[in-house]
Amino acid sequence: MAVKRVDLYDTTLRDGAQQEGISFTVSDKLKIAQKLDELGINYIEGGWPGSNPKDTEFFEKAKNLKLKNAILVAFGSTRRIDTDVNTDTGLKALVKAGTRAVNIVGKSSDRQVTQVLETSLDNNLKIIRESVEFLKSRGLIVFYDAEHFFDGFKANPGYSIDTLLAAQQGGADCLVLCDTNGGTLPVEVADIVRQVKKKLNKPLGIHAHNDSEMAVANSLAAVEQGVQHVEGTINGYGERCGNANLCSIIPALKLKMGYQCITGKQLARLTEASRFVAEVANLPPNSHLPYVGISAFLHKAGLHVSAISKWEESYQHIDPELVGNNPKVVVSELSGKSNIIFKARELGIPIQPSGKEARRILEQIKELESLGFQYEDADASFELLLHRSQAGYKPPFELVDYMVVVERHRRLPALGGKVEFLSEATIKVKIDGKIMHTASEGNGPVNALDFALRKALLEFYPGLAKVDLIDYKVRILEGSSGTGSQVRVLIESSNGNVQWRTVGSSTNIIEASWLALYDSMEYFLLRVNKDARRKK
Predict the structure, then answer these.
(1) Shortest CA distance to 55 belongs to which of 97, 2, 101, 111?
(2) What is the pTM of this model?
(3) For the segment 1-32, what is each residue's pLDDT rounded down to a tens digit?
(4) How far apart are CA 127 and CA 91, in angstroms?
(5) CATH topology of domain 7-252
Protein backbone atom coordinates (compact mmCIF):
# COMPACT_ATOMS: atom_id res chain seq x y z
CA MET A 1 0.00 0.00 0.00
CA ALA A 2 1.41 3.40 -1.03
CA VAL A 3 2.20 5.89 1.74
CA LYS A 4 -0.28 8.77 1.75
CA ARG A 5 1.56 12.08 1.88
CA VAL A 6 0.56 15.74 2.03
CA ASP A 7 2.91 18.73 1.87
CA LEU A 8 2.37 21.43 4.50
CA TYR A 9 2.69 25.05 3.44
CA ASP A 10 2.71 27.74 6.14
CA THR A 11 1.81 31.35 5.39
CA THR A 12 1.78 32.73 8.95
CA LEU A 13 4.49 35.25 8.09
CA ARG A 14 2.51 36.71 5.19
CA ASP A 15 -1.21 35.87 5.26
CA GLY A 16 -1.24 35.40 9.04
CA ALA A 17 0.44 38.78 9.52
CA GLN A 18 -2.58 40.41 7.88
CA GLN A 19 -4.61 39.76 11.03
CA GLU A 20 -5.60 42.88 12.89
CA GLY A 21 -3.23 43.45 15.81
CA ILE A 22 -0.30 41.46 14.39
CA SER A 23 2.87 43.20 13.27
CA PHE A 24 5.92 40.98 13.08
CA THR A 25 9.39 42.49 13.11
CA VAL A 26 12.09 40.99 10.89
CA SER A 27 13.54 39.33 13.99
CA ASP A 28 10.10 37.90 14.85
CA LYS A 29 9.74 36.42 11.38
CA LEU A 30 13.16 34.80 11.52
CA LYS A 31 12.37 33.21 14.89
CA ILE A 32 9.01 31.88 13.71
CA ALA A 33 10.55 30.49 10.51
CA GLN A 34 13.06 28.56 12.60
CA LYS A 35 10.30 27.19 14.83
CA LEU A 36 8.20 26.13 11.82
CA ASP A 37 11.19 24.32 10.39
CA GLU A 38 11.61 22.42 13.67
CA LEU A 39 7.92 21.47 13.48
CA GLY A 40 8.53 19.84 10.09
CA ILE A 41 6.68 22.28 7.82
CA ASN A 42 7.62 21.66 4.17
CA TYR A 43 7.25 25.19 2.81
CA ILE A 44 7.43 28.48 4.73
CA GLU A 45 6.11 31.56 2.97
CA GLY A 46 8.21 34.43 4.25
CA GLY A 47 6.44 37.43 2.76
CA TRP A 48 6.14 39.56 -0.36
CA PRO A 49 9.56 40.87 -1.40
CA GLY A 50 9.44 44.30 -2.97
CA SER A 51 6.07 45.19 -1.42
CA ASN A 52 7.64 46.65 1.73
CA PRO A 53 11.15 47.14 3.15
CA LYS A 54 10.56 44.69 6.02
CA ASP A 55 9.89 41.69 3.76
CA THR A 56 12.80 42.57 1.51
CA GLU A 57 15.07 42.68 4.57
CA PHE A 58 13.64 39.40 5.83
CA PHE A 59 14.57 37.50 2.68
CA GLU A 60 18.07 38.95 2.77
CA LYS A 61 18.60 37.85 6.39
CA ALA A 62 16.78 34.54 5.89
CA LYS A 63 19.63 33.41 3.64
CA ASN A 64 21.53 32.73 6.87
CA LEU A 65 18.82 30.49 8.36
CA LYS A 66 19.87 26.85 8.80
CA LEU A 67 16.62 25.20 7.76
CA LYS A 68 16.62 21.40 7.98
CA ASN A 69 13.11 20.52 6.82
CA ALA A 70 11.56 23.50 5.09
CA ILE A 71 11.98 25.36 1.82
CA LEU A 72 11.52 29.11 2.06
CA VAL A 73 8.99 30.61 -0.34
CA ALA A 74 8.68 34.18 -1.65
CA PHE A 75 5.17 35.36 -2.43
CA GLY A 76 4.04 37.71 -5.19
CA SER A 77 1.55 38.10 -7.99
CA THR A 78 1.33 37.67 -11.72
CA ARG A 79 2.77 40.51 -13.82
CA ARG A 80 0.95 43.80 -14.15
CA ILE A 81 -1.50 44.01 -17.03
CA ASP A 82 0.55 46.67 -18.83
CA THR A 83 4.11 45.35 -18.39
CA ASP A 84 6.33 42.71 -19.92
CA VAL A 85 7.44 39.82 -17.69
CA ASN A 86 11.09 40.75 -18.23
CA THR A 87 10.58 44.24 -16.85
CA ASP A 88 7.89 43.59 -14.24
CA THR A 89 9.26 44.80 -10.89
CA GLY A 90 7.21 42.30 -8.86
CA LEU A 91 8.49 39.25 -10.73
CA LYS A 92 12.06 40.57 -10.64
CA ALA A 93 11.76 41.03 -6.85
CA LEU A 94 10.66 37.40 -6.51
CA VAL A 95 13.76 36.21 -8.35
CA LYS A 96 15.99 38.55 -6.37
CA ALA A 97 14.66 37.16 -3.07
CA GLY A 98 16.91 34.15 -3.65
CA THR A 99 14.48 31.44 -2.54
CA ARG A 100 14.18 28.02 -4.16
CA ALA A 101 10.41 28.37 -4.43
CA VAL A 102 7.96 31.16 -5.20
CA ASN A 103 4.18 31.49 -5.05
CA ILE A 104 2.27 33.83 -7.32
CA VAL A 105 -1.38 34.70 -7.00
CA GLY A 106 -3.59 35.23 -10.05
CA LYS A 107 -7.24 35.84 -10.80
CA SER A 108 -9.39 32.77 -11.47
CA SER A 109 -12.83 34.40 -11.31
CA ASP A 110 -14.14 36.09 -14.46
CA ARG A 111 -15.74 38.93 -12.49
CA GLN A 112 -12.52 39.51 -10.57
CA VAL A 113 -10.72 39.80 -13.91
CA THR A 114 -13.12 42.25 -15.53
CA GLN A 115 -14.20 44.29 -12.49
CA VAL A 116 -11.10 44.28 -10.25
CA LEU A 117 -8.14 43.60 -12.53
CA GLU A 118 -9.95 45.51 -15.30
CA THR A 119 -8.65 43.54 -18.23
CA SER A 120 -10.00 41.00 -20.70
CA LEU A 121 -10.45 37.34 -19.86
CA ASP A 122 -8.01 36.31 -22.60
CA ASN A 123 -5.37 38.78 -21.44
CA ASN A 124 -5.62 37.40 -17.90
CA LEU A 125 -4.87 33.88 -19.21
CA LYS A 126 -1.84 35.24 -21.04
CA ILE A 127 -0.66 37.06 -17.90
CA ILE A 128 -0.87 33.86 -15.83
CA ARG A 129 0.94 31.69 -18.38
CA GLU A 130 3.73 34.19 -19.07
CA SER A 131 4.32 34.91 -15.36
CA VAL A 132 4.69 31.23 -14.51
CA GLU A 133 6.92 30.63 -17.56
CA PHE A 134 9.20 33.50 -16.54
CA LEU A 135 9.71 32.15 -13.03
CA LYS A 136 10.15 28.56 -14.21
CA SER A 137 12.81 29.73 -16.67
CA ARG A 138 14.81 30.89 -13.63
CA GLY A 139 14.82 27.34 -12.26
CA LEU A 140 12.33 28.00 -9.44
CA ILE A 141 9.66 25.80 -7.88
CA VAL A 142 6.45 27.66 -8.73
CA PHE A 143 3.15 27.45 -6.85
CA TYR A 144 0.15 29.14 -8.42
CA ASP A 145 -2.51 30.43 -6.01
CA ALA A 146 -5.79 30.60 -7.94
CA GLU A 147 -7.45 33.45 -6.09
CA HIS A 148 -11.27 33.35 -5.67
CA PHE A 149 -11.24 29.96 -7.38
CA PHE A 150 -14.30 28.38 -5.75
CA ASP A 151 -16.51 31.46 -6.14
CA GLY A 152 -15.28 31.81 -9.70
CA PHE A 153 -15.94 28.15 -10.47
CA LYS A 154 -19.49 28.32 -9.17
CA ALA A 155 -20.17 31.31 -11.44
CA ASN A 156 -18.22 30.25 -14.53
CA PRO A 157 -16.54 26.84 -14.18
CA GLY A 158 -15.14 26.82 -17.70
CA TYR A 159 -13.14 30.00 -17.26
CA SER A 160 -11.84 29.08 -13.80
CA ILE A 161 -10.52 25.81 -15.25
CA ASP A 162 -8.91 27.78 -18.10
CA THR A 163 -6.91 29.86 -15.60
CA LEU A 164 -5.52 26.66 -14.07
CA LEU A 165 -4.70 25.30 -17.53
CA ALA A 166 -2.82 28.51 -18.28
CA ALA A 167 -0.71 28.07 -15.14
CA GLN A 168 -0.20 24.40 -15.98
CA GLN A 169 0.96 25.32 -19.49
CA GLY A 170 3.40 27.77 -17.97
CA GLY A 171 4.91 24.92 -15.96
CA ALA A 172 3.52 25.51 -12.44
CA ASP A 173 4.50 22.76 -10.01
CA CYS A 174 1.27 22.94 -8.00
CA LEU A 175 -2.09 24.59 -8.65
CA VAL A 176 -3.59 25.86 -5.41
CA LEU A 177 -7.36 26.32 -5.25
CA CYS A 178 -8.23 29.29 -3.03
CA ASP A 179 -11.46 29.85 -1.12
CA THR A 180 -10.50 33.50 -0.77
CA ASN A 181 -13.78 34.79 0.68
CA GLY A 182 -14.18 31.74 2.91
CA GLY A 183 -17.80 31.08 1.99
CA THR A 184 -17.61 27.62 0.43
CA LEU A 185 -18.93 24.53 2.25
CA PRO A 186 -17.03 21.21 2.50
CA VAL A 187 -19.50 19.38 0.27
CA GLU A 188 -18.94 22.01 -2.44
CA VAL A 189 -15.16 21.85 -2.06
CA ALA A 190 -15.18 18.07 -2.44
CA ASP A 191 -17.38 18.19 -5.55
CA ILE A 192 -15.37 20.96 -7.23
CA VAL A 193 -12.00 19.32 -6.50
CA ARG A 194 -13.29 16.08 -8.06
CA GLN A 195 -14.26 17.97 -11.22
CA VAL A 196 -10.98 19.89 -11.41
CA LYS A 197 -8.84 16.77 -11.06
CA LYS A 198 -10.37 15.35 -14.24
CA LYS A 199 -9.19 18.37 -16.26
CA LEU A 200 -5.58 18.73 -15.03
CA ASN A 201 -2.41 16.67 -14.70
CA LYS A 202 -0.60 18.80 -12.09
CA PRO A 203 -0.75 18.37 -8.29
CA LEU A 204 -3.47 20.40 -6.58
CA GLY A 205 -3.36 22.45 -3.39
CA ILE A 206 -5.95 24.06 -1.11
CA HIS A 207 -5.88 27.52 0.51
CA ALA A 208 -8.96 28.13 2.66
CA HIS A 209 -10.15 31.12 4.67
CA ASN A 210 -12.34 30.79 7.72
CA ASP A 211 -15.18 33.27 7.18
CA SER A 212 -17.77 30.48 7.49
CA GLU A 213 -15.84 28.52 10.17
CA MET A 214 -15.10 25.92 7.47
CA ALA A 215 -11.42 26.45 6.65
CA VAL A 216 -10.14 23.32 8.40
CA ALA A 217 -13.07 21.18 7.20
CA ASN A 218 -12.64 22.47 3.64
CA SER A 219 -8.91 21.72 3.69
CA LEU A 220 -9.51 18.14 4.88
CA ALA A 221 -12.33 17.64 2.38
CA ALA A 222 -9.95 18.69 -0.41
CA VAL A 223 -7.28 16.27 0.80
CA GLU A 224 -9.84 13.46 0.78
CA GLN A 225 -10.36 14.18 -2.91
CA GLY A 226 -6.66 13.98 -3.73
CA VAL A 227 -5.21 17.42 -2.96
CA GLN A 228 -1.53 16.98 -2.05
CA HIS A 229 -0.63 20.45 -0.76
CA VAL A 230 -2.32 22.28 2.15
CA GLU A 231 -1.79 25.96 2.95
CA GLY A 232 -2.62 27.51 6.31
CA THR A 233 -1.32 29.41 9.31
CA ILE A 234 -0.40 28.63 12.90
CA ASN A 235 -3.38 29.23 15.21
CA GLY A 236 -5.47 30.14 12.15
CA TYR A 237 -4.14 33.72 12.13
CA GLY A 238 -5.23 35.80 9.15
CA GLU A 239 -7.36 38.64 7.86
CA ARG A 240 -11.03 38.90 8.86
CA CYS A 241 -11.86 35.50 10.45
CA GLY A 242 -8.47 33.99 9.73
CA ASN A 243 -7.01 31.19 7.62
CA ALA A 244 -7.12 27.43 7.88
CA ASN A 245 -5.51 26.50 11.20
CA LEU A 246 -2.54 24.20 10.66
CA CYS A 247 -2.61 23.33 14.38
CA SER A 248 -5.90 21.52 13.71
CA ILE A 249 -5.14 20.30 10.20
CA ILE A 250 -1.82 18.61 11.01
CA PRO A 251 -3.04 16.26 13.78
CA ALA A 252 -6.21 15.51 11.84
CA LEU A 253 -4.16 14.49 8.80
CA LYS A 254 -1.69 12.40 10.77
CA LEU A 255 -3.75 10.89 13.58
CA LYS A 256 -7.18 10.56 11.99
CA MET A 257 -6.62 10.28 8.24
CA GLY A 258 -3.32 8.39 8.13
CA TYR A 259 -1.31 10.92 6.11
CA GLN A 260 2.44 11.32 6.51
CA CYS A 261 3.09 15.03 6.96
CA ILE A 262 5.35 15.35 10.01
CA THR A 263 6.90 12.80 12.37
CA GLY A 264 5.42 11.79 15.71
CA LYS A 265 8.28 13.56 17.48
CA GLN A 266 7.54 16.75 15.56
CA LEU A 267 3.81 16.42 16.26
CA ALA A 268 4.59 16.38 19.98
CA ARG A 269 5.96 19.93 19.54
CA LEU A 270 2.75 21.28 18.04
CA THR A 271 1.42 22.85 21.23
CA GLU A 272 4.81 24.42 21.91
CA ALA A 273 4.88 25.90 18.39
CA SER A 274 1.34 27.26 18.73
CA ARG A 275 2.13 29.07 21.97
CA PHE A 276 5.52 30.26 20.70
CA VAL A 277 3.94 31.96 17.68
CA ALA A 278 1.23 33.52 19.87
CA GLU A 279 3.92 34.87 22.20
CA VAL A 280 5.95 36.35 19.35
CA ALA A 281 2.76 37.84 17.85
CA ASN A 282 2.09 39.40 21.27
CA LEU A 283 -1.34 37.80 21.41
CA PRO A 284 -2.81 35.78 24.29
CA PRO A 285 -2.93 32.09 23.33
CA ASN A 286 -6.48 31.02 22.52
CA SER A 287 -7.19 28.59 25.35
CA HIS A 288 -10.04 26.92 23.43
CA LEU A 289 -8.18 26.03 20.25
CA PRO A 290 -8.60 22.32 19.41
CA TYR A 291 -5.56 20.13 20.11
CA VAL A 292 -3.23 22.91 21.34
CA GLY A 293 -5.37 25.14 23.58
CA ILE A 294 -4.84 24.91 27.33
CA SER A 295 -8.53 23.99 27.62
CA ALA A 296 -8.54 21.53 24.71
CA PHE A 297 -8.47 18.61 27.16
CA LEU A 298 -10.02 20.34 30.18
CA HIS A 299 -12.61 18.50 32.26
CA LYS A 300 -15.02 20.32 34.54
CA ALA A 301 -18.19 18.24 34.94
CA GLY A 302 -17.99 15.71 37.75
CA LEU A 303 -19.36 12.94 35.54
CA HIS A 304 -16.57 13.49 33.03
CA VAL A 305 -13.81 13.51 35.62
CA SER A 306 -15.14 10.36 37.20
CA ALA A 307 -15.08 8.69 33.78
CA ILE A 308 -11.55 9.76 32.75
CA SER A 309 -10.24 8.58 36.12
CA LYS A 310 -11.28 5.09 35.03
CA TRP A 311 -10.66 5.38 31.29
CA GLU A 312 -8.78 8.39 29.92
CA GLU A 313 -10.25 8.13 26.43
CA SER A 314 -13.83 8.32 27.70
CA TYR A 315 -13.91 12.11 27.20
CA GLN A 316 -10.78 12.71 25.09
CA HIS A 317 -10.65 12.10 21.36
CA ILE A 318 -6.84 11.63 21.35
CA ASP A 319 -4.02 11.27 23.86
CA PRO A 320 -3.06 14.92 24.57
CA GLU A 321 0.62 14.02 24.77
CA LEU A 322 0.63 13.19 21.06
CA VAL A 323 0.37 16.92 20.31
CA GLY A 324 2.40 18.05 23.32
CA ASN A 325 -0.61 19.04 25.43
CA ASN A 326 -1.90 17.86 28.80
CA PRO A 327 -5.27 17.02 30.31
CA LYS A 328 -6.57 19.47 32.89
CA VAL A 329 -9.21 19.09 35.57
CA VAL A 330 -10.82 22.18 37.08
CA VAL A 331 -13.07 22.51 40.08
CA SER A 332 -16.29 24.52 40.16
CA GLU A 333 -19.88 24.36 41.33
CA LEU A 334 -20.45 21.84 38.53
CA SER A 335 -17.87 19.46 39.97
CA GLY A 336 -18.33 16.19 41.74
CA LYS A 337 -16.16 14.45 44.31
CA SER A 338 -14.17 12.96 41.46
CA ASN A 339 -12.81 16.42 40.56
CA ILE A 340 -11.63 16.99 44.11
CA ILE A 341 -9.98 13.58 44.40
CA PHE A 342 -8.37 13.86 40.94
CA LYS A 343 -6.88 17.29 41.69
CA ALA A 344 -5.76 16.28 45.16
CA ARG A 345 -4.00 13.19 43.78
CA GLU A 346 -2.38 15.37 41.10
CA LEU A 347 -1.08 17.73 43.81
CA GLY A 348 0.02 14.97 46.17
CA ILE A 349 -2.53 15.84 48.87
CA PRO A 350 -4.01 12.79 50.63
CA ILE A 351 -7.80 12.72 50.37
CA GLN A 352 -9.59 9.39 50.70
CA PRO A 353 -12.01 8.59 47.85
CA SER A 354 -14.44 6.91 50.23
CA GLY A 355 -14.32 9.49 53.03
CA LYS A 356 -16.41 12.56 53.76
CA GLU A 357 -13.53 14.99 53.24
CA ALA A 358 -13.96 15.33 49.48
CA ARG A 359 -17.71 15.91 49.87
CA ARG A 360 -17.07 18.56 52.54
CA ILE A 361 -14.54 20.37 50.32
CA LEU A 362 -16.93 20.21 47.37
CA GLU A 363 -19.73 21.78 49.41
CA GLN A 364 -17.33 24.50 50.56
CA ILE A 365 -16.35 25.25 46.95
CA LYS A 366 -19.98 25.46 45.88
CA GLU A 367 -20.71 27.86 48.73
CA LEU A 368 -17.69 30.03 47.92
CA GLU A 369 -18.57 30.13 44.20
CA SER A 370 -22.07 31.28 45.11
CA LEU A 371 -20.29 34.20 46.81
CA GLY A 372 -18.33 35.07 43.67
CA PHE A 373 -15.16 32.98 43.98
CA GLN A 374 -14.13 30.95 40.95
CA TYR A 375 -11.33 28.41 40.95
CA GLU A 376 -11.14 27.38 37.28
CA ASP A 377 -8.39 29.93 36.59
CA ALA A 378 -7.06 30.19 40.14
CA ASP A 379 -5.37 26.87 40.78
CA ALA A 380 -3.18 28.32 43.53
CA SER A 381 -6.20 29.38 45.61
CA PHE A 382 -7.79 25.98 45.08
CA GLU A 383 -4.65 24.16 46.21
CA LEU A 384 -4.54 26.32 49.34
CA LEU A 385 -8.16 25.42 50.03
CA LEU A 386 -7.17 21.73 49.96
CA HIS A 387 -4.19 22.27 52.26
CA ARG A 388 -6.28 24.31 54.69
CA SER A 389 -8.73 21.41 54.92
CA GLN A 390 -6.01 19.10 56.22
CA ALA A 391 -5.81 18.48 59.96
CA GLY A 392 -2.79 20.17 61.49
CA TYR A 393 -2.17 22.60 58.63
CA LYS A 394 -0.43 25.71 59.92
CA PRO A 395 -0.37 28.76 57.66
CA PRO A 396 2.94 30.65 57.41
CA PHE A 397 1.22 33.84 58.62
CA GLU A 398 -2.22 34.99 59.76
CA LEU A 399 -3.96 38.33 59.35
CA VAL A 400 -4.90 40.20 62.51
CA ASP A 401 -6.29 43.30 60.80
CA TYR A 402 -5.55 45.95 58.21
CA MET A 403 -6.58 49.52 57.43
CA VAL A 404 -6.30 51.41 54.14
CA VAL A 405 -6.54 55.19 53.75
CA VAL A 406 -6.83 56.98 50.41
CA GLU A 407 -6.37 60.75 50.37
CA ARG A 408 -7.02 63.05 47.42
CA HIS A 409 -5.67 66.59 47.37
CA ARG A 410 -4.85 69.28 44.83
CA ARG A 411 -1.42 70.82 44.60
CA LEU A 412 -0.95 74.60 44.72
CA PRO A 413 -1.71 76.50 41.50
CA ALA A 414 1.93 77.55 41.35
CA LEU A 415 2.83 73.89 41.03
CA GLY A 416 0.38 73.31 38.19
CA GLY A 417 -2.73 72.49 40.22
CA LYS A 418 -2.24 68.77 39.66
CA VAL A 419 -4.46 66.39 41.62
CA GLU A 420 -2.47 63.91 43.71
CA PHE A 421 -3.50 60.76 45.52
CA LEU A 422 -1.96 59.17 48.56
CA SER A 423 -2.70 55.58 49.56
CA GLU A 424 -1.46 54.22 52.87
CA ALA A 425 -2.01 50.76 54.33
CA THR A 426 -1.45 49.64 57.91
CA ILE A 427 -1.38 45.91 58.58
CA LYS A 428 -0.97 43.50 61.48
CA VAL A 429 -0.05 39.87 60.86
CA LYS A 430 0.87 37.09 63.28
CA ILE A 431 3.90 34.91 62.56
CA ASP A 432 4.73 32.19 65.09
CA GLY A 433 2.84 34.10 67.76
CA LYS A 434 4.64 37.37 67.03
CA ILE A 435 2.61 40.37 65.87
CA MET A 436 4.19 42.34 63.05
CA HIS A 437 2.67 45.83 62.69
CA THR A 438 3.75 47.70 59.55
CA ALA A 439 2.61 50.55 57.32
CA SER A 440 3.45 51.52 53.78
CA GLU A 441 2.44 53.93 51.05
CA GLY A 442 1.63 52.94 47.47
CA ASN A 443 0.32 54.33 44.22
CA GLY A 444 -3.06 52.79 45.05
CA PRO A 445 -4.72 50.95 47.95
CA VAL A 446 -3.84 47.46 46.66
CA ASN A 447 -0.24 48.49 46.00
CA ALA A 448 -0.02 49.94 49.52
CA LEU A 449 -1.43 46.71 51.01
CA ASP A 450 1.09 44.69 49.00
CA PHE A 451 4.02 46.78 50.25
CA ALA A 452 2.83 46.70 53.87
CA LEU A 453 2.39 42.91 53.82
CA ARG A 454 5.84 42.38 52.32
CA LYS A 455 7.39 44.66 54.92
CA ALA A 456 5.82 42.50 57.64
CA LEU A 457 6.87 39.19 56.12
CA LEU A 458 10.32 39.80 54.66
CA GLU A 459 12.07 39.55 58.02
CA PHE A 460 10.82 35.96 58.27
CA TYR A 461 10.57 35.06 54.58
CA PRO A 462 13.24 36.89 52.53
CA GLY A 463 12.39 34.83 49.45
CA LEU A 464 9.24 36.97 49.01
CA ALA A 465 11.45 39.72 47.60
CA LYS A 466 11.42 37.78 44.31
CA VAL A 467 7.63 37.83 43.97
CA ASP A 468 5.99 40.32 41.59
CA LEU A 469 2.34 40.92 40.86
CA ILE A 470 2.22 40.70 37.06
CA ASP A 471 -1.53 40.91 36.38
CA TYR A 472 -4.56 42.21 38.27
CA LYS A 473 -8.10 41.84 36.97
CA VAL A 474 -11.39 43.00 38.49
CA ARG A 475 -14.76 41.77 37.29
CA ILE A 476 -18.17 43.00 38.42
CA LEU A 477 -20.26 39.86 38.82
CA GLU A 478 -23.64 41.56 38.47
CA GLY A 479 -24.44 45.24 38.20
CA SER A 480 -27.88 45.47 39.77
CA SER A 481 -26.42 46.85 43.01
CA GLY A 482 -24.35 49.52 41.29
CA THR A 483 -21.17 50.39 43.15
CA GLY A 484 -22.17 47.92 45.88
CA SER A 485 -22.02 44.94 43.51
CA GLN A 486 -20.04 41.79 44.18
CA VAL A 487 -16.63 41.85 42.49
CA ARG A 488 -14.09 39.16 41.76
CA VAL A 489 -10.36 39.89 41.73
CA LEU A 490 -7.88 37.63 39.96
CA ILE A 491 -4.19 38.17 40.68
CA GLU A 492 -1.35 36.59 38.72
CA SER A 493 2.04 36.49 40.42
CA SER A 494 5.50 35.34 39.45
CA ASN A 495 8.97 34.87 40.90
CA GLY A 496 10.54 35.07 37.43
CA ASN A 497 10.34 31.32 36.84
CA VAL A 498 6.88 30.20 37.95
CA GLN A 499 3.50 31.91 37.62
CA TRP A 500 0.42 31.28 39.74
CA ARG A 501 -3.08 32.76 40.02
CA THR A 502 -5.22 33.47 43.05
CA VAL A 503 -8.78 34.75 43.52
CA GLY A 504 -10.76 36.85 45.96
CA SER A 505 -14.37 38.02 46.01
CA SER A 506 -16.36 40.54 48.04
CA THR A 507 -18.67 43.53 47.73
CA ASN A 508 -15.62 45.49 48.93
CA ILE A 509 -12.98 45.67 46.19
CA ILE A 510 -10.18 46.18 48.75
CA GLU A 511 -11.20 43.04 50.65
CA ALA A 512 -11.48 41.02 47.41
CA SER A 513 -8.00 42.23 46.45
CA TRP A 514 -6.63 41.41 49.89
CA LEU A 515 -7.96 37.84 49.76
CA ALA A 516 -6.28 37.23 46.39
CA LEU A 517 -3.07 38.92 47.58
CA TYR A 518 -3.03 36.91 50.82
CA ASP A 519 -3.40 33.66 48.86
CA SER A 520 -0.63 34.67 46.48
CA MET A 521 1.90 35.15 49.27
CA GLU A 522 0.86 32.02 51.16
CA TYR A 523 1.00 29.89 48.01
CA PHE A 524 4.50 31.10 47.23
CA LEU A 525 5.72 30.19 50.70
CA LEU A 526 3.96 26.83 50.62
CA ARG A 527 4.66 25.57 47.11
CA VAL A 528 6.75 27.75 44.82
CA ASN A 529 9.73 28.52 47.01
CA LYS A 530 9.98 25.75 49.57
CA ASP A 531 13.52 26.84 50.37
CA ALA A 532 12.44 30.32 51.48
CA ARG A 533 13.12 29.43 55.11
CA ARG A 534 12.75 31.85 57.96
CA LYS A 535 15.74 33.64 59.39
CA LYS A 536 16.78 32.16 62.68
Answers:
(1) 97
(2) 0.71
(3) 566 899 999 999 999 999 999 999 999 999 99
(4) 12
(5) TIM Barrel (3.20.20)
